[in-house]
Design goal:
122 residues, Aminopeptidase, single chain, alpha+beta, 35% helix, three-stranded mixed sheet
Length: 122
């Protein structure tokens, strides 16, 4: 996991593991929606999730193009965009895939304003 808003495309023509910006026709819209979420999240907006084992990982403005981060062939985000004209971003909300129950209220507080801002944009 991480703390970042990722947007299409997740796949790239070269299928390099990382570092290839794979721009969609609606790139500006996707960046706008990703920033709408990230800019209201106290950790995500810093662009420095500081996840264990990935302390040096950074995301400007708390967002990333999926393929630039890591290439995913056949991902749901790209499939829905290409075949169903569905604009979808992926939200990585925690370094931990399954946070302990005691941490869930804090996770809600971290994400509440982001979720409301995102819904307003949609």
């Amino acid at each position: 996991g991480s703390v970042v808003a990722s947007y299409p495309y997740d796949d790239s023509p070269t299928h390099r593991l990382t570092g290839v910006y794979s721009k969609s026709a609606d790139d500006e819209v996707f960046k706008y929606l990703a920033k709408a979420y990230a800019s209201h999240h106290p950790i995500m907006r810093t662009g420095k999730p500081n996840c264990p084992g990935e302390e040096g990982e950074t995301f400007p403005d708390g967002i990333t193009n999926g393929a630039q981060w890591y290439d995913v062939e056949g991902g749901m985000q790209d499939y829905n965009y290409v075949w169903a004209n569905c604009f979808e971003i992926t939200l990585e909300l925690s370094c931990c895939k399954y946070p302990p129950t005691a941490e869930l209220p804090k996770e809600w507080e971290n994400n509440r304003e982001s979720l409301l801002a995102f819904i307003e944009k949609v």
